[in-house]
Amino acid sequence: MGTAGGPILQPGRSQPAHLLKVGDQAILIDCGEGALGQLTRAEVPFRDIHTVVLSHHHFDHIGSLFALLGLNMMTQRNQPLRIFGPTGTARIVAGLTDACDVPNEIGFGVPGQTLPHARDFVEVREINPGDTVEIGEVTLTCCENTHYRGEADHGSGWYLSLSLRFDTPDRSVVFTGDTGPCKAVERLAQGVDLLVGELMDVDLTMTRVREANPQMPEARIQMIGAHLADHHLSPEQLGDMARRAGAKRLVAVHFSPGMMTPARAREYLARIEAVFDGPVHLSEDLGRY
User: Does residue 289 sit within a domain?
Assistant: First the structure.
């Protein structure tokens, strides 16, 4: 539903959020700014979401969580809303739930009226690499990726960035989340029907960083560039990940500002297809696959 990436908002693209529908189940993967509006455009009531799975806690992936909690509270939700995510998810949700206190106390201003509180329906479970979670007919597994640290340092940090696999009765989907090249993600995605992977144009992004920050020291510029190159995927790296995993189809998402001009889109597609021979889509918001 949302195919933008990074902290800069873009017209025409919302921040990261994906909807997985399996029968009457509606699972929201990440919940970036604009997610609830995108659900409305997709004709999916936000109250139909029963499960949210977070890949990591950068703000572009969680910005609409407060709205999801608060609007369900104001519409008197009486069914559980389950939220899964890496370490830190419970702390974030607890803070957002506490922030619902004042709106809950105000209610609709009707004397004697009470509303359910978000904490009455929210259920949180933190997940770790290797965990298996059954969500109705869907099986969720996950691995640590390289968005926060290299594979040699996996397991050494408190916070995690996860890649997520969903196996349904008739197909499988892997969401890389934000990541750099990563063997663990390739293993998680082995034989997957659909790989939804992030894409970064580091050269373009660094050009924009330099333009926006002409006084930034060169050492700082180099550090940012190295981070982006190590912890995100170029077109070739995304295609190679799909090829190594044996993915049947690839959808690219998480585009930073300025990436998706027609000429650049053609270039990215050609660079991916040079290493991956399956179907490739550069997703638009609300794309269905």
Answer: no
Higher-pLDDT residue of 54 and 214 is 54
Q: Give the count of domains, the chain.
A: 1
Structural domain harbouring 237: 18-282
List the alpha helices (DSSP H) in 86-201. Answer: 89-99, 101-106, 118-121, 183-188
How confident is the model over 115-167, as pLDDT tens digits?
899 999 999 999 999 999 999 999 999 999 999 998 888 888 779 999 999 99
Residue 235's nearest CA partner among 209, 262, 267, 257 is 267
pLDDT band at 235 (very low <50, low <70, confident <90, very high): very high
Confirm if 198 and 178 have CB atoms less than 8 A apart. Answer: yes
Q: State the pTM of this model.
A: 0.94
Report yes or no on 136 lying in a domain.
yes
Q: Which CATH number goes with the domain that contains 86? A: 3.60.15.10
Task: Give, in order, the Cα–Cα distances in Å from 16 to each of 24, 30, 211.
Answer: 23, 6, 25
The answer to whether residue 111 is domain-embedded is yes
Residue 86's Cα: distance from chain center in Å? 12
CB 22 within 8 A of CB 136: yes
Q: Which of 75, 76, 32, 27 is nearest to 52 (CA)?
A: 27
Q: In terms of residues, how long is the chain?
A: 289
Helix (H) or strand (E) holding 227: helix 218-231
**Residue 27 falls within a domain, yes or no?**
yes
Q: Whole-number mean pLDDT of the chain?
A: 95
Pairing between β-strand 18-22 and β-strand 51-53 as defined by DSSP bridges = unpaired
CA atoms within 13 A on the CB side of 73: 27
Q: Could you tell me which residues come within 8 angstroms of residue 107 by beta carbon, excluding any fewer than 6 positions away?
A: 113, 114, 115
